[in-house]
Specification:
Elements lengths: L1 H20 L27 E12 L5 E13 L2 E11 L4 E14 L5 E6 L4 E8 L4 E11 L3 E9 L4 E2 L5 E4 L3 E19 L2 E16 L3 H4 L2 E9 L4 E8 L12 E8 L2 E5 L3 E9 L6 E10 L4 E7 L5 E2 L5 E12 L2 E11 L8 E3 L4 E2 L5 E5 L9 E7 L7 E7 L3 E2 L11 E9 L6 E10 L4
Parallel strand pairs: 24-30
Antiparallel strand pairs: 1-2, 1-12, 2-3, 3-4, 4-5, 5-6, 6-7, 7-8, 8-11, 9-11, 10-11, 11-12, 13-14, 13-22, 14-15, 15-16, 17-18, 18-19, 19-21, 20-21, 21-22, 23-25, 25-28, 26-27, 26-29, 29-30
């Protein structure tokens, strides 16, 4: 009996192990997926836009310092260049970050696997490629080398989770005419070395890979977005993608709201069942851009309730367009259990100070609603209003109400004699008060008609 029990246990262990590792093979096509590996890790000649993105968190084995980074290669012909590379690097302990954009030509850009060899216009070369053991490719393992004047990275990647396929089998329709193929690799162990501030040291860490190809180009299509990659302590990974229209709307459909979650080797899902509420905002150093800084993410599936916070305000990439790129921290609950986490935020959407105008004529009485309008509404930044009045030539103001969402109010002013002058002041502000503006207007109180 004991022998039979041990044999059965061994069979179950082996079958479970084989099943959980079966994705670590090439070729590999996830169930119901339009994406296959390694071929779709390479260049797609028929697609207009394509990029290879990775971000991660590192710990120096000599200094003990924490670093974060992002590397992204774009296929995007510009003049004599066939593309460009963005390198972002952060010394997280000292809150110092650097970014470097280089035009380049791809001397190798394979179509059957990931093999990028890029010669930059500064004369140096970089690469990102599938690991090769001398006989064949090593599935889902990669070597990356990139450098700037500030930092050099020589990294070895080893994926420990199957790819997360976004959208419908990897295909996402954005608005009416734009599309992208999209997959992520959310659990990647990193080893290697970096050279920074004259010190070369070994590192360990974790990384995330994003791949997109299609005809979607946020720089030219007028569609900005906020993208949040989340790695949780319960081993769950989440990708959030909120796309804004040119009118700063976030339509409630799957073309603009993408939620994808890796739960475990056997379970992942994608959809639009989530809410993302912005809790704080932060200006760039020159105050020309204002990005979301803190979010609350909720989703009924798996009862997700997370607070996501950008660690640094000054974390911009300046070329080819300005956008925020930086590390985040996460706290909250999943299915009622506490979790922590880390991630990255990529933010192309910038928020504006509310532009408000009164709608009333110069004569007013208490039978007429006080009305105003917001000229630049933004779904990511719902504005709250306060209303005040003055009858002493604006020397003092008295509050009528605060923190309402409506843009009209009926107020009983019977205590103020007809014919008097009255000033109204409306203040509109974001949830944290970072984005704020005030308008005032003088009215003549008239008898009720």
């Amino acid at each position: 009996m004991l022998k039979k029990t041990l044999t059965l246990g061994l069979i179950l262990f082996l079958s479970t192990s084989v099943f959980s590792q079966k994705w670590k093979t090439y070729p590999y096509t996830p169930l119901k997926s339009a994406i296959s590996f390694p071929v779709d890790e390479g260049r797609h000649d028929k697609e207009i836009e394509e990029w290879w993105y990775t971000s991660g968190h590192l710990v120096g084995q000599t200094t003990g310092k924490q670093y974060s980074y992002m590397i992204c290669y774009f296929y995007y012909p510009i003049g004599s260049a066939s593309g460009f590379r963005i390198l972002y690097f952060s010394d997280d302990d000292n809150e110092l970050n650097y970014n470097d954009m280089q035009l380049l030509n791809y001397t190798v850009l394979a179509t059957d696997k990931l093999d990028i060899l890029a010669k930059k216009f500064d004369g140096n070369t970089e690469y990102w490629k599938n690991k090769y053991d001398g006989k064949e490719l090593v599935p889902f393992e990669y070597d990356i080398n990139a450098q700037s004047q500030v930092v050099s990275l020589d990294l070895a990647y080893k994926s420990n989770k199957p790819p997360l396929i976004l959208g419908e089998g990897g295909y996402i329709l954005i608005s009416a005419s734009h599309y992208t193929y999209y997959y992520s690799q959310t659990g990647v162990n990193v080893t290697g070395s970096i050279t920074y501030n004259g010190i070369t040291e070994n590192i360990t860490g974790t990384s995330w890979i994003d791949r997109q190809y299609g005809n979607f180009n946020p720089a030219t299509d007028g569609l900005e977005y906020e993208c949040l990659g989340i790695q949780l302590s319960n081993k769950m990974d989440i990708m959030i993608w909120n796309v804004f229209t040119a009118k700063d709307k976030i339509p409630d459909d799957k073309r603009f709201k993408i939620f994808a979650a890796y739960v475990n080797d056997h379970t992942q899902y994608t959809g639009s069942d989530f809410k993302l509420k912005r809790l704080e905002f932060s200006y760039s150093l020159d105050t020309q851009k204002c990005y979301a800084k803190k979010w609350r993410l909720t989703s009924s599936k798996n009862n997700i309730d997370l607070i996501i916070t950008s660690l640094f305000s000054d974390s911009e990439v300046n070329l080819p367009v300005r956008f925020y790129e930086g590390r985040t921290s996460i706290t909250g609950t999943v299915n009622g259990r506490s979790v922590t986490g880390k991630g990255f935020a990529e933010l192309l959407h910038s928020y504006e100070v509310p532009e408000i105008d009164f709608m009333n004529e110069d004569v007013w009485n208490n039978s007429i609603p006080i009305k105003w309008k917001l000229n630049n509404p933004d779904d990511g930044n719902p504005i709250k209003y306060s209303l005040e009045y003055s009858i002493d030539g604006q020397k003092t103001y008295n509050e009528i109400f605060s923190d309402i969402s409506e843009t009209h109010y009926i107020w009983n002013s019977k205590a103020i004699p007809n014919g008097n002058q009255i000033w109204f002041k409306v203040t509109g502000k974001s949830i944290d008060g970072t984005l704020k503006s005030t308008i005032t207007k003088k009215f003549i109180l008239s008898p009720k008609s």
